[in-house]
Amino acid sequence: MEWINTLNTLCHAFGPSGAEGGVAQIIEEMARPYVDEITRDTMGNLICRKKGSGPRLMFSAHMDSIGLVVTHIDDKGFLRVGAIGGVHADAVVNTPVRFQNGTCGVIAAQVGSTPGKRTMADLYLDIGATSREEAEQQVQIGDVAVYNTPVFPAGALVAGPYMDNRISCLVLLQAMERLHDCPNDVYFVFSTQEEVGLRGAKTAAWSIDPDYGIAVDVTSEDGIPGAKHTASSLAGQGAAVKVMDRSVICHPKMVNLLMELAQKQGIPTQRDVIQAGGTDAGAIHQTRSGVCTGGISIPCRYTHTPCEMVCATDVEACVELVAALAQTKLEKEC
Questions:
Q1: Measured between alpha carbons, how far is 164 from 308 in angstroms, rounded to an integer?
Q2: Considering 20, 134, 136, 194, which one is annotated as catalytic?
Q3: How far apart are CA 219 and CA 302, in angstroms?
Q4: Rounded distance, CA 93 to CA 108, Å?
Q5: Would residue 334 count as lying in a domain?
Q6: Are residues 129 and 237 in the same domain?
Q7: What is the pLDDT of residue 1?
Q8: Domain of 131: which CATH number?
Q9: In the prediction, which pLDDT does 303 show?
Q10: Mean pLDDT of the residues in the chain
Q11: Residue 315: which domain range?
């Protein structure tokens, strides 16, 4: 896993929904040598273009993360918080966090709250302050905390915070390194505010007006003990080609194109269906008069927890498939 240091940098970049500037700057510096043009729009989307004469092909990997926003500071300096995105209260108890200014703390559960039934109202952040005044010298109402857990290899897998979706940002960065002459006009979009409603992808797709769209994201993994088979993908079985999720039914021609391209080039793939959750594809496919849209996903365990896991070989398969599609001469019409 030669890319684990890059992944570590991406996973620990500050970038919760609505405040993605820090991670965007890091990605921009990494992408600059490999693309022809880089812009940012009003929503904060980072749009990296590799120019070509063919149809417009948009890849979108959201760079925002879930987080915890400060809603109240009590007299003893403890912070009450709300969720930005899909934070599950029971999954984050005793997790270390940090704010953009470097202030660190721990998520704790209120005494008497019931495990398995906790809500965000049962949680608080302990930053070591002893009074409201001391806490306010470090954080303010509206400041956002993110998970401060490590990235580390675990056998053939790698674990850490925010694999959703910094691992897909890594996939796009790795893929653009492998491109030479592109027959298509390729846009690599690192989108904002996906975790709170696919908002960045919506405006980026409207602006780019792509002929083809691909959301690159994680997907639920079905191989853990007790899985209820609401997902189809397994870690270690290759790139997951999206068929459908709650936000999109992918265009059959795009599903077939990806599967055929993978078979031709010997890229391991599997078909991806999940019954909950969505991706930027949900916004892209409804743009203007409609976009021929699909998805390339990395199976991920323990999504939306402080320690998510993906398989290194699946990551490589996704890189190969993204690069292969970008370098395939596409027709103007899907």
A1: 8
A2: 194
A3: 10
A4: 5
A5: no
A6: no
A7: 58
A8: 2.40.30.40
A9: 97
A10: 97
A11: 4-65+161-326
d(CA 283, CA 245): 13
Cβ neighbourhood burial of 1 (10 Å; 0-12, 13-18, 19+): middle
Angstrom distance (rounded) from CA 71 to CA 79: 7
Does any domain span residue 11? yes
What ranges in 150-192 are assigned the alpha helix state H?
163-177
pLDDT at residue 49 above 90?
yes
Query: 24 near 38, Cβ under 8 Å?
Result: no
Residue identified by tokens 């491109």 is: 179
313 shares a domain with 211: yes
Both tokens assigned to 171: 């996939």
- DSSP secondary structure string, 7-47? HHHHHTS--BTT--HHHHHHHHHHHGGG-SEEEE-TT--EE
298: pLDDT strictly greater than 90: yes
Percent of the chain surpassing pLDDT 90: 98
Q: Give the C-alpha distances (Å, rounded to integers) separating 207 from 51, 56, 98, 202.
A: 16, 12, 34, 9
The 10s digit of each residue's pLDDT in 121-146 is 999 999 999 999 999 999 999 999 99
Q: Residue type at 306?
A: P
* pLDDT (mean) for 254-281: 97
The answer to whether residue 194 is catalytic is yes
Where do runs of H (alpha helix) occur along the chain?
4-11, 21-31, 132-136, 163-177, 199-208, 252-265, 281-284, 312-326
Residue 331 lies in a domain: no
Q: Which pLDDT value is given to residue 84?
A: 98
